[in-house]
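For reproducibility, we list the full input for the PBG complex.
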Amino acid sequence: MAFPLTRMRRLRRTPALRELVRETRLDVGDLVLPVFVEQSLGTALPIDSMPGVSRQPVSGALAEASECLALGIPAMIFFGLPTEKDAEGSGAWDPEGSVQQAIAAIKAAHPDLVLIADCCLCEYTDHGHCGPLNDADEVDNDAALELLARTAVSQAAAGADVIAPSDMMDGRVGAIRAALDLAGHQDVAILAYSAKFASAFYGPFRDAAGATPSFGDRRGYQMDPANLREAVREAELDIEEGADAVMVKPALAYLDVIRRIADQTAAPVAAYNVSGEYAMVKAAAAAGALDERTAVLELLTSIRRAGADFVITYHAKDAARWLQKT
Ligand code: PBG
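The corresponding predicted structure, in tokenized form, follows.
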């Protein structure tokens, strides 16, 4: 049945034919917009390494929410910058913290948006690691759990629909689930950053969130980029502990991990198209090396094709506009 009987080009001939046989669809309903909130700002502060993205005061986060609603983006994920940092990261569970205030304001104005709270301590600790340190200056896993649980409960109390722990401590999903249930937040979901790799592609985010470790790196708790089977194990453990959905992060250098986890688990799979991936595309487009719109839609489609049910991306608003027009 090979050529000339079979001609693959027949179904590629017109836009309508291509539409008909398209295997993967990119829909605005699968996108999540990340937002950096800093309550002490008077006005939005552009992030140099991420053109088009700013740190926002609470009012700015509220404006971003209205934009999401207008564009059809169903969900946002929030990162906070505290007014002060300390060894434990106590700003993370401050009921008047940046994330808590933004979530409360947006929930009141737009109750239908899905509000996801990133749950981690690195933006709030003065040493920039994702949990408190022990005497040997290593992150103390079990001491972090209680602080993360406290953070999650304060985020849920503010109105978060989903808590997304990104710290990579062992046992955090179980600890957060138990604490949420105890506080009466049994309907608040957990999206676990299950396969979060120790990646160079978080560089611009750490700029944006002021969360670069003051010494060492995160390889003692985030995953080794070389490991695939371990990623499946992380996802399975998080689901056993009560995760409602799992995440792979970054996305583009880890499409095989997304595919494997999507094949081996039944839970919804998210992928985080991270800051460095965004910055690369923006830099290439600014240099005239590629067409931004075509490149972004191709990359986001590839993440969906790999098996992600939804995608967290700084391109969300642009992609939503481009999808409306196609
Ligand atoms: C917090 C956290 C990070 C990102 C999301 N949550 C940074 C890190 O782990 O160093 C990265 C997001 C991005 O790069 O866009 N732990």
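The mean pLDDT is 97. The longest strand covers residues 31-38. Both points were considered when choosing residues for closer inspection.
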